[in-house]
Specification:
single chain, 275 residues, alpha/beta, Rossmann fold, 10 helices, 14% strand, globular
Length: 275
Amino acid sequence: MRVLLTGATGYIADQLLPAFRERYDLGLLDVREEDGSGRRVEGIEVADLLVDDRSKLEPYFADAEVVVHTGHRKPVGTDTQSQYDVERSNVDMMQRVYQLSLECGVRRVVAASTNQAAKWYEQPYYAGLKDRVSPEDYPRPDSFYGWAKAAYEPLGFLYACGSLGRKLEVIQIRIVVPREIDAELFVDEPPERYVRELAGYISERDLQQLFCKSIETSEVEDEYGVPFHIFYGVSNNARTFWSITNARKVIGYEPQDDSEVRFAEDIARLLHRRT
């Protein structure tokens, strides 16, 4: 399968690339050639999805069956306006990916999103008023970063429902904690902060599986015939807050890891005060 990966020098792409290189005929796009540690990413093509002419971008999309979008511009300032402006540009970038995919014959777009599209729900979670959030819950971001990711979703539904000419298949993956959890960072924090990380943890191999199954599952239409889904990106954690029921059902996601097992010694030390 021919897959185009955008944002290919980024953090999420770095975790996906080992599996993607084994499984797909891969095209890689980003605005730079080097990853965060300064290493050149093999096979990268330099392009800017926001500013480059369509004539430069179209060949990449026309050659792809699936586009995996992980591209993201980071705010350079801390004031409200600069954060909004950059995140608005990220929404524009997502729209351009959808549009190019629609017009160039791409079958499916799989986009890296974030739990921050609904992060406000963590407040009632900490207060003991809510024990689970699902993709069907109304998006409630509490930052411009989360707002932009939430905006990706109804925009994606618009492209998936067929009103723009054909149904572009769209899957949004709300990744939660895609990193190994350093317990030392939580020694002086309230216990619920560490528990939150445990609940949201996703291992590299589970992240790879979630994206690969989102790419490869042949039928992804919902009960209304619309090929659109939002999946949470977490492992099979005993301490759960984000539901992965629909990912299990639609694409057969079977996460292999559990933060309770992976970090058992740290959990005993931090939460049960055993050494």
